[in-house]
Write a structure and sequence with these properties.
binds 5'-O-[(R)-(carboxyoxy)(hydroxy)phosphoryl]adenosine; Nucleotidyltransferase, domain 5; 2 domains; 18% strand; binds zinc ion; alpha/beta; globular; five-stranded mixed beta sheet
């Protein structure tokens, strides 16, 4: 009984305004997500100023909808968990201020949560699957992060490596734009790649041996070079059609190059550290081809969140909130946001 909690989660680190109520760290009572993707599509990526303005407009309705959909009032909650970082500072501040206001009004504890850690905890929201076993090798792949993390226990993280340049999702978004596809690029590349040949182009894979790091800049340049062969005077106009460009083959070959390295390095890290299970989370973990490749190649169980929990949401924030509430974390009401906050510096 002592471990029973009901946590309100709030997330505004990038371009989703989200609020959720989660019971005992795994049972979702409500999860509301308002995506700004359509607005940012006009710019071909997230426009920070616009993002924070839209969060301000949306945060109150989203939080009150999450509470009413869960049929709970503030008085039946145990804590308010909010993304403290990493993310866009102007966006993070909106969620943080909302959380602080609610904490002051209700007297509930405030818990600042690391967004990368929260992506990992999206796995604990899956009720009908076995819980992952430690030591756990986890890959967080999103628009902002490509991180390999060893988890020896709950709330314990050893960051093994990450992208030296673009995050995997960012690479998907940039290549989609180059191919004239809409933002967010991941789903667009995935759909376009369905009709293409993944071996049509032999794009480079940066294995960076001896490290657990990733790099996608060489791959990006190689795709650009290929595109220029077809369209020498290409301007990176957003969503403009690209007549004559074999976008299906390019998308499929690009996707295969990214996913080969993500799968290959994660599986060798899992073997090296004798992991019992693998977790793949974050927006890019929604990629069908990536999920298939992991399942086909891994000898140990691979856990991925359901699609709606791969991209940013607040249920995952509340799920970490549960663990941190039980571990005794209580944050002061004057904590600041941390736009760059490495996962291995979070306190356990
Ligand atoms: O986790 P997320 O919602 O936000 C961040 O924390 O960054 O991830 C968004 C990223 C975007 O770059 C988007 O293109 C990518 O996840 N993404 C995908 C897919 N769905 C979303 N990438 C590849 N395949 C997908 N199906
Ligand atoms: Zn995210």
């Amino acid at each position: 009984m002592m471990n029973e909690t009901r946590i309100l989660g709030i997330e505004t680190s990038c371009d989703e305004t989200a609020a959720a109520v989660v019971e005992n760290g795994h049972h979702i009572l409500s999860s509301e997500v308002a995506s700004q993707a359509k607005t940012h599509a006009k710019f071909g990526g997230v426009f920070p100023e616009v993002a924070s303005r839209l969060h301000i407009e949306t945060i109150y309705p989203i939080v009150s909808t999450a509470l009413s959909a869960a049929h709970v009032g503030l008085n039946s909650l145990d804590a308010i968990a909010v993304t403290r970082g990493p993310g866009l500072s102007g966006s993070l501040v909106v969620g943080m201020n909302m959380a602080k206001g609610l904490a002051i009004a209700s007297g509930l504890p405030l818990l600042g949560i690391n967004h990368i850690e929260a992506h990992l905890y999206s796995i604990w929201l899956v009720e009908d699957q076995d819980e992952p076993e430690f030591p756990l090798l986890s890959l967080v792949v999103s628009g902002g992060h490509t991180e390999l993390i060893l988890m020896k226990d709950h709330l314990s993280y050893e960051r093994l490596g990450g992208s030296l340049d673009d995050a995997a999702g960012e690479a998907f978004d940039k290549i989609a734009r180059l191919l004239g596809l809409a933002y967010p690029g991941g789903p667009a590349i995935q759909e376009t790649a369905e009709g293409g040949d993944p071996q049509a182009y032999k794009f480079p894979r940066a294995w960076l041996p001896g490290t657990w790091d990733f790099s996608f800049s060489g791959l990006k340049t190689a795709v650009l070079r290929e595109v220029r062969k077809h369209q020498p005077d290409l301007k990176a106009a957003v969503e403009a059609p690209r007549p004559g460009l074999p976008i299906a083959d390019l998308a499929a070959s690009f996707q295969a190059a990214v996913n080969d390295v993500l799968v290959g390095k994660t599986l060798s890290a899992a073997e090296h550290f004798s992991a019992k299970d693998i977790v793949v989370a974050g927006g890019v973990s929604a990629n069908r081809n990536l999920r298939k490749a992991f399942l086909a190649q891994s000898k140990i169980p691979v856990h991925t969140p359901p699609i709606e929990l791969c991209t940013d949401n607040a249920a995952m924030i509340a799920s970490v909130g549960h663990q941190r509430f039980l571990s005794g974390q209580r944050d002061a009401l004057d904590i600041d946001v941390l736009p760059t906050w490495p996962i291995n510096s979070t306190l356990s």
